[in-house]
Amino acid sequence: GGPRRLLLVSNSTLHGGGYLGHCQQHIKSFLGEKVKRVLFVPYALHDRDAYARTAREKFESLGYGLDSIHESCDPVEAVRKSEAIFIGGGNTFRLLKALYDNSLIQEIRKRVLEDGIPYVGSSAGTNVATISINTTNDMPIVYPPSLQALGLVPFNINPHYLDPDVKSTHMGETREERIHQYHEEPNTPPVLGLREGAMLLVEGDKATLQGVTGARLFLRGKKPTEHEPGTDFSFLLIDSNLQN
């Protein structure tokens, strides 16, 4: 195996572009030429066949074959044989429940952390790559056995991070306030607010912010900080040994 390699994308579609259009070059350079086929996990959406068609079309246009795990009679074996994994967006609770239901949490962890196969996540697929799904924006439409996720990185991410609109008359909590509420609980990890168009590249113990928009970092008990593409976030991986 090799070191862990993750590409964690905030969103699948950016305004004005098609499915994975804004990050397709990142995906291509991330997967490289060694990978021939990608295992797709469509569990976050109800219509898995349609979702797999969309993903297959995109990945084939980039030069990769795509197998959807829902078409396999043995999902665990599909993960064991996979060269790369892509988990797409949708509802994070539905996705995590299906990962537990199909006994895939430990298998995916092993393939990514021990065998070093590349992992691409977008939106909900990025949420489940982190410690837990506590900081997802989704409604709990189903009940996974735990909010603990794959733990491929030792912090949480909030995809589709939205800044407060100063002109808005909406009086509900902002995204920032919700993350602050999370951090009022003891022993909660950092949360990286990834704006749409942003992604985090993790290679071994190095993490770099990529894409066209920045990110906002929330550390428990501290003021949030603003970060531009190119920022080195490797320090967020430091206590990754505690996760293993």
Supply database-style keywords.
7-stranded mixed sheet; serine protease; serine-type peptidase activity; alpha/beta; Peptidase_S51; 244 residues
Topology (elements, then pairings):
Layout: E1 5-9, H1 24-31, E2 37-41, H2 48-61, E3 65-68, H3 75-81, E4 85-87, H4 92-101, H5 105-114, E5 119-122, H6 124-127, E6 156-158, H7 175-183, E7 191-194, E8 198-203, E9 206-211, E10 215-218, E11 225-227
Parallel strand pairs: 1-5, 2-3, 2-4, 4-5, 6-7
Antiparallel strand pairs: 1-8, 7-10, 8-9, 10-11
GO molecular function: dipeptidase activity; serine-type peptidase activity
EC number: 3.4.13.21
Catalytic activity: Dipeptidase E catalyzes the hydrolysis of dipeptides Asp-|-Xaa. It does not act on peptides with N-terminal Glu, Asn or Gln, nor does it cleave isoaspartyl peptides
